[in-house]
Amino acid sequence: MKGWIARVRAGAGPLALLGVLTLAAGLLVLGAPRIANQLTDEGLRNDVSALSYTSRDLTFRGVKAPNANWAPDRRLTQQRDLLYPVLRERIQQSWWAASTSPEDSFVRGTGLPERTPPLFSVRTGSGLEEQADLVAGRWPQTRPGTDVPVEVVLTEYNAEQLEQRVGSTFRFQDSVPVEVVGIIAPHDENGTFWEPVPTALRAYLPNEDGDPYRAVVFSDETGVTRLAKQVQVTYEWRYRIDAATLDLAVLPAVVEGTSVARRQGIESSLTTGLDTALDRFAERARAAQALLAVVQLGALVTLAGLVVLAARVLVSRRRAEFALLRARGGAILTIGSYTLLESLLVLPAAVLGALLGAAVPGRPANTWPVLAAFTALAVCAVPVMTMRTSRDPSFSGERADVASTRVGLKRRTAELSLLVLAGAGVWLLRERGLSETGEVDVYLAAVPALLAAGAAVAMVRVIPPVVAWLGRLAVRGRGAVGFLGLSRAGRTAGAVIGPVAVLVVAVSTAVFSVAVAGTIDAGRDRATDLRMAADVKVDGYYFDERTAAELAAVPGVTAVAPYMIESAGDLAVDQQRKGTVYALVLDGPAYAKVLAESGVQFTPPAAFTETGQSPVIPALLSPGAAKQVGDGKGMVTLRGRFYDFSVAAVVDGFPPIANGATNFIVLPWQAFPADSRQALLPSGYLLAGDPDPQALRAAGDAGQERWASTGYRAKSYEPVTLVTTWDSARAELDETSVNAVITFAFAIGAGTGVLLALLAIGFAVVSGARGRGTVLSRLRTMGLTRGQGRGLLLVELMPVVTVAVLTGAVVGVAMPRLIAPALGLDTFTDGITVGVAFDPLVAGAAVALVLIGMLTALAVETLFNRRLRLGEVLRLGSFEAGES
């Protein structure tokens, strides 16, 4: 036992370092995935919660056949029971409803203007009495019969705006009597129940002469059934999925269950966008997981390299002890078993790391095998190296620098194999991607680390001749420090291949994280430019002609371009309707000026900006719209009027139209004839400059107010002007669902990369400290000062460390370019694909890391020399003197 304790004390430092590295691996392997999973799941829930009810809920809609006798409330339960358990268990609330067709529900006798009769859709269903209180009257109780009125209630706001009260009557389709029997007040107007019926809360009040009033009123099932004889009644069964029960692990099952539910409707069809939204999130999550996996494996490979280096230091300290045991007849396996018992002290650290990692909040990941493998490496590294050293025992310190100049066949084969693995991995990454099947391939995720290690091997083979040549040049200079330092650097460069490889991998991981982060930022900047096409956007309903001048007069505004949007204009070719198209009317010259003033890198076609008035408008079409038009004569509706257009150019995209849009048409405002242009009204403006948003909003509200006052004006009309700045649009991209995961991955990569790089530099110092100590002891007797001794260390390490840091930086910057298709960075940049951005700060950070590394080297060397006691080294003439 005493011998075991003595051996543990002799290797306490390296053993403690092995324990710390294993503890860090436990946190990295078990804790980091939990944090990433928690951030991903929170992003998923936030995304789902932000969806509209049409996308989030499962809504089955159908029409009841005349001879059908099913009850809608029972159908609600029956439909739910058919769903997959993964969906059924996650339903938070459910409702059924039946409503008359809004477009066919015209009424008369309301007291409102009836040039276009008001449209009052009558609705019934579950949940109303739980979501509202009676303010006046009672709940509907329609009696059987054809002569009695259908009883309805409506909200307090609508009753005031539509001039209805308890006892008011009107005629549904001018034939069925309807009576208002109650006024209700919703508990929460933002509640889930009211989402499908916004006009039940706030009736649509017409903004133009000829627009009808639109509202929803509530009746009972008897009343709606009676109206079914006059108009089509649509039944719906709506199921709300609880976002709190969703996580990435169940996402595939939920998507599959939703897809199957489209075929499970009982005499109904499913309307939902949940599966599509979840698929999009899964794509972003896979890309984020791929980035995190690359960073984690880079850090893990660096930790594994440090484990090997720590084991190497421990074994080198006890080389004479192992040689003595071997000389006394000790078997190699027996000697290895001694050190195995000592290495078992790493296990408590591994257990502690596992417990700390498992205690991190978040959904667990199946990474225990990785931690087990790392722990096995930490435990077995010392015994394996001990047995390898015992095969060729030596009692004296060997010239590792000289031995390293001879590269054996096995080592050369291993180095070439490493390069082949890295190259093949890059090719596979570009061809297959990193997470094509949804699971990250460990080998492919390790390719950046393999490439960095391969670059380190190549660097170690190239540097010694160059440094030796510099050493020969230093002979001509004054002083011995430069010559001796460069000479030792040339001889020992190959001996420190382990620390150098670890240093290159650590630096490349950190720089890779920074480079990818910079690329994503640049992509989001570009996406914001294309989404905004200006510094500020002002949107509203319609503005009058004076608004543009008033916006231009706001301090800070340098250019203004008006535009009008027709989100669903009718597209016709040769007098035949082809469907709808997104139409944008934009002032070409003003648009070009806004782009130039805002610094947006986009050049619109000259056919758009330089055209003049023409009876046939030269238009820019998307490929999808151009395919529909072909060689025919095209027409598009704007505010109810048809305009002829010709295809001036086909464009894949046009700011500010959303990226990825495939069915749009852009028409130059200035090309419209004067008589036709009067029918155009701006619905928004693109602005350049840095104005006050409040001043823009005030000018926009005034413009909308004037427009509403020029013609027919509805009661309680409230102009709403939306002002969007470039910064706010950019911030929206930073608040994407998986952005927190990406930020976490970059923090791991940059933070651990720098720390482990400094640790690798420390190992590079320790690996040659004994030989360097002997040289310094002898040179001291020749008059070498302590300052010159420190200079000797810097000259010896500076070439290798500098080249290693630069190599890691180059690999880190180049890696995103090599494997960009596999990373899927466009999922984080609104679909915009941009080249890998180079941040000049990377170069500055590399220089800073070299300087900090040199300071670290000096500190480690000083501590080691004090422990080594250089005077005893010289007096005893042994490399092992001073060892404790």
UniProtKB/TrEMBL annotation:
<dbReference type="GO" id="GO:0022857">
    <property type="term" value="F:transmembrane transporter activity"/>
</dbReference>
<feature type="transmembrane region" description="Helical">
    <location>
        <begin position="335"/>
        <end position="356"/>
    </location>
</feature>
<protein>
    <submittedName>
        <fullName>Membrane protein</fullName>
    </submittedName>
</protein>
<feature type="transmembrane region" description="Helical">
    <location>
        <begin position="840"/>
        <end position="860"/>
    </location>
</feature>
<dbReference type="InterPro" id="IPR050250">
    <property type="entry name" value="Macrolide_Exporter_MacB"/>
</dbReference>
<feature type="transmembrane region" description="Helical">
    <location>
        <begin position="744"/>
        <end position="770"/>
    </location>
</feature>
<feature type="transmembrane region" description="Helical">
    <location>
        <begin position="791"/>
        <end position="820"/>
    </location>
</feature>
<feature type="transmembrane region" description="Helical">
    <location>
        <begin position="290"/>
        <end position="315"/>
    </location>
</feature>
<keyword id="KW-0812">Transmembrane</keyword>
<keyword id="KW-0472">Membrane</keyword>
<feature type="transmembrane region" description="Helical">
    <location>
        <begin position="492"/>
        <end position="516"/>
    </location>
</feature>
<feature type="transmembrane region" description="Helical">
    <location>
        <begin position="368"/>
        <end position="386"/>
    </location>
</feature>
<dbReference type="GO" id="GO:0005886">
    <property type="term" value="C:plasma membrane"/>
</dbReference>
<keyword id="KW-1133">Transmembrane helix</keyword>
<feature type="transmembrane region" description="Helical">
    <location>
        <begin position="442"/>
        <end position="471"/>
    </location>
</feature>
